[in-house]
Amino acid sequence: MSGKLNWMLVAALTAAALVALSGLYLFHLIGPSPRESRSLRVGHLVADELHQPGWCVAQELGFVSEEGFEPANSEYMNGAAEMEHFAAGELDVAYVGAAPFLTARAAGVDIVAVASSNTEGSSIVAAREIRDVADLNGMRVGSPGIGTIQDYILTRVEETHGVSFTHFYAKITDLILYFERGEIDAYIGWEPHPTRAVVEGIRGAHTLLTSHEILPGHQCCVLAVRGDMVRNSPEVVASIVRWHAKAQRWVLDHPDTAEEIIANHSGVSVNLIHAAHPVVQHNYPPYLDLTSMRIMLEGLMASGKIDPEDVPDLDSFLNHAVDNSFVSSLLQTQRLSLGSTFEPQVAASLPRTAMAPRGAVSVPVSR
Amino acid sequence: MKLIQVEEVSKRFGDLLVLDRVSFSVGDGEFMCICGPTGCGKTTLLRVMAGLIPATMGRVLVDGQPLDPLRHNISFVFQEPSCLPWKTVSGNVRFSLETRSAALRQNLSKADMDERAGRILDFVGLQEFAHYYPHQISAGMKQRVAIARAFVTEPDLLLMDEPFGYLDVQTRYFLEKEILRIWEKLRRTVVFVTHSIEEAVYLSERTMVLTELPARVSATIPVNLPQPRDYDDPSFMDLRRKITDLIKWW
Amino acid sequence: MKQRRWQDSILGLIVLLGFLAAWQLAAVVVRSPFLPGVTDTVGAFTDLALHGDLEGYSLLTHVAVSLTRIAAGFGLACLLGIPLGLLMGLYPSVYRSARTIVEPIRFIPPIAWIPIVIVVIAGFSRYLFIIWLGAFFPILISTLAGIPRVNPVHLDVARVHGAPRGYLIRRVVIPSVLPEIFAGMRVGLGVGWMCIVAAEMLGGENIGLGRLILKYAELFKLDYSVAGMVLIGLLGLLLNEAFIQAEKRFFRWRWEVTL
To answer: Which ipTM score applies to this complex?
Structure first.
């Protein structure tokens, strides 16, 4: 009997040891260490190059390699998915919406936003029967995901206009399909997906509201990096911000060529990009807009998407989450070394003026 | 009582000839045993007589008509356990009545069938176990259920293929007495295949002996001993020896 | 026998407690905000049970919606699988000719169907189809594989009494195959249940247990997601147990009396 007991004990201990080892391996506590080379893992959203032109323009035009990086790109269905992968340590840089960024940060992801990618840039399209917002009452409105900015904007529309509708969730690229089949009568998304329905004339689609009309100048997509990079290798972050800012500038100066590059990467026609372009603002200098981010943060907390216990002090939270200093230093040094190349100036080619950042960490940038 | 005639029945499986022009007749409520060397085709003969497999040549007649399981009332007790496991003991016994009724489109009433089944179960001494399932009763009892099921339809011909082959010796002795008792009361024509010569002499009114493959009728031995028979009786042992000599292939 | 039962239960309880302890330990050691411990998960579950989810849907709604979807898919799988299985089992030529289509389809995982399902089917039928895909094949295969296993002696017993073919099928083949059909149904229900998350990845209204898991995962509230996972597992277990009990009742003739 004791012989049998010994065997059982040995078997049990071996099994426990194996389980423990596998667990440690899975949680990265042992096993191969992360890469240290100059490769840069950049994440972005699917067909969102209009909001996030920085990465593709900068790579196309060689700005990234000039800084000595070898980029590796990954694409995600929405910001929440991207943040999940970021949290797992698969990305160094993320182009992501402000709402999923805030949600991730509140959940404890070590991520810091260091520049703006775009402001505004979403719209609600609706079928021809829906003439104004009141008609949305009781309808089903498509949304690309519960953690997205667009979902937040929908909630805001419900509150400010006193209407109530069902949020119908689907992948951004599927929303137009559901709309066409009549399962939803309106949807919100980041451009160019809403305008696509208008351009293709599906169910007489028309733009009901743009995000400019819902929350003017609101921060949309941000450029975010790993928190440990900001703390331990700020010069790397500075390089990243530099190629990003160069690309943003370039988009503003060369809108037509930019649209071509964007159309190429998104896999949609240049006409569509051109039609949707006015809705999107690429603010320059690419400061992050804290005011609108604060409003969004409050909204996310109110709807239960972020736990208030994770954000005891909103302002302190935002100050740690958002770091505009890289943009300001960049402007300082560039002005000193290269003259007027990176002058903050209003882009002349867009019908609406880029909104000046409010509440940003201010460094005087007067001409 | 109907007369069953087996006329020049031959059965071939591919190249193998199993039965070679077997002819005999049986009827009138008699109890006939068939003996023969192991593997000589006794089961095949029985299956042809039941209409389960067709004869290659020759035919089986019932009262002059070609045998037809649908028209003629035939029962079979198999060597292996054949109780339907999802039916109780009484359900099994009723099954043959139900099948017969459905086949002939007779629509026997349930009450009628219940009554007949109850009577036969009573008679074989299994009434107490009527609601038991086959897996709850012993092997010997399972065969008694099969026997009851075979008798309840009052068949013209009752075929039994070594029904006690899988049972232990004590149960065999008991069931041999039982089958005689049942047969003496109900008097149906029984053709009983066995490899046990002792059993054949104990049970039968006559024993037909088959040759080795391909099987032909070697001899038919009448067994005129009075019942109840005694295994140790000299005449019993004489007949045993006689039949053994006919069969002896070893 | 009763003593053995108690022993098994206690052993089972010890294994469960051991697992929970290991889980909690792992959560403490790893200390990631994304690996909820036992206490976090229980807290999240309680919150869901008492207050519903963040959109206001109660836990009961989620459960009811998922159960409805599964019931529909499973029901359809039985309705199609059992007769087709019987047909293919009784007429092997049908099975042989159908194999060229059935076998490849059987191996396409339900998730892979999602893009087609979105475009080709609409509404509730989408969920129906994905669940059906999971449940159908075990039922079909168990049924058709059971038929050759019918004991020939049982068929002979009926044949000797003149049973026509239809009678044989109804009164001998089907009762023989029934336990295997049931087993196939139980497996099918299990697989269909596991497909619920794949089905609910389709999007749409945010209700359903699978949707619950995904919804909270998008918000990084993994303690709620895991609570949803645990609930799915428990419900699946309950369904399976219910099936086993039903099998025991129906097939008393198979089980030993002592169980």
So the answer is: 0.91
